[in-house]
Amino acid sequence: MSLIYLQGYPEHLLAQVRTLIDQQRLGEVLQQRYPDAHQVLSDKALYDYTLAFKNRFMRSAPPISKVIWDNKIKVMKHALGLHTAISRVQGGNLKAKAEIRVSTFFRHAPEPFLRMIVVHELAHLKEKEHSKAFYQLCCHMEPDYHQLEFDARLWMTDQALRGNAA
Ligand SMILES: [Zn+2]
């Protein structure tokens, strides 16, 4: 069984995941830990949700012009969402504008997974690479960041097993 969303995690964790899948308990375990889907369904709601995090933690980062659900993002190893930084010269000044797109795959996900993705994409406003500084910023915004990323990947794995491929 290939666990494509969990590449890079240590083998002892993957072995536990395989056991849960073999016992057909992965979905049940996730459902118990994350019982509720979020209600951030529209692009407007997603923008407001993201801006609340930005205003709280990343006030000095460039403004975000747009945050949208995007059904064209292929969810793979490191692309749960996408961010683009656009720089333009306006009246002699360089203006940076950022856009964040989140895969519609997470439109019906538990709220903590959406939070993890939004935190990830916001951190990219300051740190381009997945560096130590990048993950420190993620953990500053969401102390459980690493656990949530792992669990979100578990959830994606479970969805794929149910035929809901991203
Ligand atoms: Zn990233």
TrEMBL record:
<dbReference type="Pfam" id="PF01863">
    <property type="entry name" value="YgjP-like"/>
</dbReference>
<keyword id="KW-0378">Hydrolase</keyword>
<protein>
    <submittedName>
        <fullName>Metal-dependent hydrolase</fullName>
    </submittedName>
</protein>
<dbReference type="InterPro" id="IPR053136">
    <property type="entry name" value="UTP_pyrophosphatase-like"/>
</dbReference>
<dbReference type="InterPro" id="IPR002725">
    <property type="entry name" value="YgjP-like_metallopeptidase"/>
</dbReference>
<feature type="domain" description="YgjP-like metallopeptidase">
    <location>
        <begin position="92"/>
        <end position="148"/>
    </location>
</feature>
<dbReference type="GO" id="GO:0016787">
    <property type="term" value="F:hydrolase activity"/>
</dbReference>
